[in-house]
Design a protein that fits this description.
Largest sheet of chain A: none
Helix content of chain A: over 70%
Strand content of chain A: under 5%
Number of helices of chain B: 9
Largest sheet of chain B: 5 strands, antiparallel
Number of domains of chain B: 3
Largest interface: A-B, 57 and 47 residues
Distance between the termini of chain A: 32 Å
Number of strands of chain A: 0
Oligomer: heterotrimer
Strand content of chain B: 25-35%
Strand order of the largest sheet of chain B: 7-19-20-21-22
Shape of chain A: elongated
Chains: A mainly alpha (223), B alpha+beta (413), C alpha/beta (295)
Order of helices and strands of chain A: HHHHHHHHHH
């Protein structure tokens, strides 16, 4: 049964997954080419100094990409369930509704994590090619809040799509955005060093957020 | 059961989001400027002068309460406004036996600032070691940056690889001087926009402070006599042609020292009540005085000394801190806590819960009452079943109340 | 006889709009039970309540012995559910959807599904979203049959189907149900196809049940009488005798469960003089419309 649900989710999101991987690789390529150009046109030491002392992030173009992919993924995965009320098919399957919702969002999370891993590996390769280890390391740590944001954005969007009422959808958006926005506040590198754990712990709450709208959908809540 | 837990997760997230958003919104509407007066010490009247701009009008006055026009005020501060005084032809010939001219003032002035944010900012410690006795006038960027931890290593930016020959030379120079790796701290002024270079001050494992430079391509390394029990927190290096001191040194206990060119001897600056974590410190040198100013959001101290650092006068201005404003108290009564994500003393992003104290009970009780009434009369909920909602409101006041009232419980199966 | 479905005092309203009040009915094992009614009378609402997708305002339903708003996965496995409009995972192909569903049911009867598909003559990698409504209805039916459920719940199977596919659907269904002794609960707004197959039915009108009896009994006892009124044209009231009535000028039609004699007596008692009184026979559809009204 788990395999079957995997199969269904895969059919819904395969093109998004394909597009997300392409997008991630595309942006990584862009960052790499951009850096190559920097080093070609300037004295390499000045490029180093620029990125270290001015704290300019050569990968800042990635900032909202994981979150963007997460939104598209959640929509691609859960809108087909809402259209023609197809969720009734899913909920009628002889499989626990809770497990089935958690499994669906777990599958989406795997894709979000896949994108995160691609970006981290890509940044590690690009960084180690052009920069001392300290800079590469800082890039991997600095993107972590953005990647954490992509996880919360995915779970938040899923909950918003899945709720049966527009009133609640808007409330969820209002209630989730200030926290998620807190993960995009940095100006330079490594600025979440001391708070990322706290943000991560709060983000864990997003792990079960989808069950409430799922329940409202399953039981036909009228509120 | 799962859905019930999920609702609480949503409610708690909403509470956190509201504790970020609502106080921000409140202060967006109700904040007002909270700037202290500028404080200067006049070498003419030998007393403190003040200036402040409110609503675009600048006022000038002294400790006795005399007010001045802008021109009269600037005339009392020749070391600050010498260009203007010179233009008006009123620059005095001498002040306290110091022959005054634009060039003599410029030659004998210096300014250093240490902001609280310097103590709370991420910085990758990869620095350029400049040639400090170059044949050329301007400093030039070397081809390498160096790191210093378990050893010193130079990295060539052109190849992104270590330059072992250079690293070896400097490693032996440091070791010869008794440097014990790994290095604990490094401070320098890694810019070419300065008149000359004094390299870096590095603290080793045994708390000895070393001075490291590159002279004619070779290492220059001195183990200084700066005490090892000083608990150094920060060093700011700022090369100045006066060559009186390399820079300022701050200890963990907020003592401020100058590192002088006289064999690295330290001079302690009078800065009682200075707190590096929350205050910005300014240090001025002019031809006849030294001035140390440090301030936070409710207090500003200005200490004036002679050129031998003997205190002449001290003035501390106090004003109402933001936390004592009526509107802050209203905010505290309204909001039991807020999440602080950023503040001016740090570059780091925070997630700090600030509790507003007992006064918040007012808001909590109102929120709790409103929640109970609405749940009972409008929603007709069973309060006993939803006791956890009330607990959330009791802990978070208005935030929790909004959350539990807007995200209503379902009939649970 | 064991009741597969049992609804007690079921009341539902959307906000202030009452759909029905105190609905009571039960479906016995092995029977084909129909809820007939025009659109908007609460047929789909009833199915949503039975399947737990809607919480009734009050009252209780039990399906296969479980409370309908909390059906366990095991019980759901015993219920084949056809949604209004033959909704299914249209992003799958004919073969993919079979592969998907087969994992959930232990008695999966692949042969039944592909038997039906083969008749349609569509290839297995045909995407369902590209199929016609009629083809899709066969896929949906094939899936339910392959599931081999004890109870089949079919919500307006006829929606969007032309006469041919409706007949095909019914033929397959009847064949399957009779052979395997299934219980069927179905709704429809088109009634003539059901004439021969429904054992028991309720006909829903606005906010209430108009009728609950076996179809054959309904047909045998429900009459249509025509007569011309002479003189002043009377307004009739709906009561025990007059189930429904209509007139065009002085030509009156009265629908009634009473015999010709009683109706005549009824009219005479009210001082209505009539002529050319005769009964007109009806098929089920005609009777259905007679009972529920044309509007």
């Amino acid at each position: 049964m788990i395999k079957a649900i995997f199969f269904k989710e895969w059919l819904k999101i395969r093109w998004v997954v394909f597009g997300a991987v392409l997008l991630a690789l595309g942006f990584l390529t862009y960052i790499g080419l951009n850096l190559r150009q920097y080093f070609k046109m300037n004295d390499p030491i000045n490029v180093w100094i620029y990125f270290i002392q001015r704290k300019v992030l050569y990968y800042s173009i990635l900032k909202f990409i994981p979150a963007f992919i997460a939104v598209i993924l959640a929509i691609a995965q859960f809108t087909p369930e809402m259209v023609k009320k197809r969720y009734r098919l899913t909920f009628h399957l002889p499989y626990s509704e809770t497990k089935s919702i958690l499994l669906m969002s777990g599958i989406g999370l795997l894709i979000v994590l896949l994108v995160a891993v691609i970006l981290l590996v890509g940044l590690a390769i690009i960084g180690s090619n052009y920069f001392p280890a300290e800079v590469t390391y800082s890039s991997l740590i600095t993107v972590l809040p953005w990647l954490l944001a992509s996880i919360t954005v995915y779970l938040a969007t899923s909950a918003i799509v899945l709720d049966p009422s527009w009133k609640y959808r808007i409330l969820y958006a209002l209630f989730f955005i200030p926290f998620i926005q807190s993960l995009f506040l940095e100006h330079g590198y490594l600025e979440y060093q001391y708070s990322l754990t706290a943000y991560f712990l709060v983000s864990l709450l997003f792990g079960v957020v989808i069950l409430f709208p799922g329940y409202r959908l399953r039981k036909g809540s009228v509120k | 059961m799962n859905a019930k837990l999920s609702r609480y997760a949503i409610v708690i997230l909403a509470t956190i989001s509201l504790s970020i958003f609502l106080p921000n919104l409140y202060w967006m509407v109700f904040d007002k400027p909270n700037r202290p007066p500028q404080i200067y010490y006049s070498p003419i009247i030998k007393d403190f002068l003040f200036t402040k701009t409110i609503n675009g009008n600048t006022e000038y006055w002294d400790k006795q309460g005399n007010t001045y026009s802008r021109k009269d005020y600037e005339a009392l501060l020749p070391f600050n406004y010498y260009y203007n005084l010179d233009k008006w032809g009123v620059l005095p010939d001498s002040i306290d036996d110091f022959p005054v001219s634009i060039s003599s003032i410029r030659k004998n002035s210096q300014f250093t600032r240490i902001r609280s944010v310097y103590f709370h900012t991420p910085m990758i410690q990869l620095n350029p070691l400049f040639e400090s006795q170059s044949d050329f006038v301007h400093l030039e960027m070397p081809a390498e940056l160096f790191r210093i931890d378990n050893k010193i290593e130079f990295l060539d930016a052109r190849t992104n690889s270590t330059v072992d020959s250079l690293s070896d030379i400097f490693n032996s120079a440091l070791t010869d001087q008794g440097f014990q790796f790994p290095a604990k701290y490094i401070a320098g002024n890694p810019t070419t926009r300065k008149a000359f270079d004094e390299g870096y001050f590095v603290i080793d494992q045994a708390n000895h402070v070393f001075h490291l430079k590159k002279v004619k391509g070779q290492p220059f390394c001195v183990k200084t006599d700066i005490p090892t029990d000083l608990n150094i927190r920060h060093i700011t290096i700022k090369e100045n042609p006066r060559r009186e001191f390399y820079g300022l040194l701050i200890t963990q206990s907020n003592e401020v020292y100058l590192i002088t060119y006289n064999n690295y001897q330290l001079i302690r600056l009078p800065a009682d009540g200075y707190d590096a974590d929350t205050m910005d410190l300014l240090f001025f040198v002019d031809p006849i005085y030294r001035t140390i100013k440090y301030s936070n959001d409710h207090k500003k101290t200005c200490v004036v000394t002679d050129i031998n650092y003997n205190t002449i006068d001290i003035f501390t201005a106090h004003w109402t801190p933001k936390s004592k404003w009526t509107r802050s108290k209203i905010a505290a009564a309204l909001f039991p806590f807020q999440v602080e994500r950023q503040n001016k003393n740090t570059d780091y992003i925070l997630f700090n819960l600030h509790y507003n104290g007992w006064i918040a009970l007012i808001g909590i009780l109102i929120a709790l009452g409103a929640t109970i009434i609405i749940k009972k009369t409008v929603y007709k909920e069973n309060l006993k079943e939803n006791w956890f909602d009330l607990l959330i409101v009791a802990l978070s006041g208005i935030y929790g109340a909004l959350a539990v009232l807007l995200i209503q419980p379902e009939p649970w199966d | 006889m064991e009741n597969v479905i049992e609804c007690v005092n079921l009341t539902h309203s959307y906000g202030n709009k009452l759909i029905y009040r105190d609905l009571n009915f039960s479906v016995q094992k092995g029977k084909i039970f129909g809820i007939l009614g025009k659109n908007g009378m609460g047929k789909t609402t009833t199915i949503n309540i039975l399947m737990g997708f809607l919480r009734p305002t009050s009252g209780n339903c039990y399906v296969l012995g479980e409370e309908s708003h909390n059906l366990s996965p095991l019980t759901r496995a015993r219920i084949g559910l056809l949604f209004e409009g033959h909704v299914c995972y249209e992003f799958m192909t004919v073969a993919q959807i079979e592969r998907f569903y087969s994992r959930f049911f232990s008695n999966w009867r692949r042969d039944l599904y592909f038997g039906l598909i083969d008749r349609l003559g569509v290839s297995y990698d045909h995407k369902i979203s590209n199929m016609s409504c009629g083809q899709r209805s066969q896929v949906a039916l094939g899936l339910i049959m392959a599931q081999d459920p004890e109870l089949m719940i079919l919500d307006d199977y006829s929606m969007g189907l032309d006469a041919g596919y409706r007949m095909l659907f019914i033929d397959y269904l009847i064949d399957y149900v009779r052979e395997n002794n299934k219980t069927v609960f179905m709704t429809s707004h088109i009634i003539q196809d059901l004439e021969q197959i429904i054992d028991d039915a309720i006909i829903m009108g606005r906010q209430k049940i108009l009728l609950q009896m076996p179809i054959s009994e309904f047909l045998a006892t429900f009459h249509q009488y025509h007569f011309d009124v002479e003189g002043r044209l009377p307004d009739l009231t709906i009561d025990d005798t007059v189930a429904n009535w209509e007139n065009i000028k002085n030509h009156y039609t009265v629908y009634s469960f009473k015999g010709e004699k009683e109706v005549k007596q009824y009219l005479e008692n009210r001082g209505i003089s009539f002529a050319d009184f005769h009964e007109i026979s009806m098929n089920l559809e005609h009777a259905f419309i007679g009972l529920t009204g044309k509007y």
